């Protein structure tokens, strides 16, 4: 008896529809027309003899079995992609496409310094960057949408391997004159007024790193978590709305230029975050990622 198996293209259509929840957006993501994607999914359902998706004019609803098959299809696609990774890893290292996620508290400060050096060192590498919060980037990594992630640790990112690149020290940033009496070289976490503390909103791991470094549980409840970006926090501090903490890489990139914000190192047991490159455990490109980590470390 002949066995008819789903094609990778059909599985790609199914996963795209699961990710986007809309036939039009799924078709755009697959670079096909909506009718082509819909026909491919109907062929898949006919092939396996099961309805995977309930279709209405307004809602795309997966059946329970459809959800299970979509999850399995995602793993199959990732495994198929890794076949190409195996061949690439055996050839010229750091060449071809590489999709790297970068978190927002790293991307605007580190990438302008390192990308020109990476292009010069590895001209055959086509690096595609995607800026996401840490949780979203880790999810994209395990879904196979990203090959590796440039992030800050500690953070629970699932079953990964990682290489530390460097430590990024934390500094207390405050309006000129606010914390200068008495004069001091460093500012202890105990001296930070929790009613004046400005942090990033939930979803940014830097907030958790700051709270962990300060080791003051009450800050989580009392801090005014208002900022959507470090640049926003700096503007708030410059307008005397509070104090915040900033990583050294942001200061090195000139985030305080044309402001009257003062910074002093945070006095704490662990006043820094670890910048690292992470990838899925068991990836056939592990040697490439370690090579990339060395290049990032040297470029920094």
From TrEMBL:
Residues 6-63 form the HTH lysR-type domain. The keyword ATP-binding does not apply. GO terms for molecular function: DNA binding; DNA-binding transcription factor activity. It comes from the Bacteria. PROSITE patterns: HTH_LYSR. One of its GO terms (cellular component) is protein-DNA complex. CDD domains: PBP2_OxyR. InterPro entries: LysR_HTH_N, LysR_subst-bd, WH-like_DNA-bd_sf, WH_DNA-bd_sf. Gene3D superfamilies: Periplasmic binding protein-like II, Winged helix-like DNA-binding domain superfamily/Winged helix DNA-binding domain. Keywords: DNA-binding, Transcription, Transcription regulation. Belongs to the LysR transcriptional regulatory family. This is Hydrogen peroxide-inducible genes activator. The lineage of its organism: Bacteria, Pseudomonadati, Pseudomonadota, Alphaproteobacteria, Sphingomonadales.
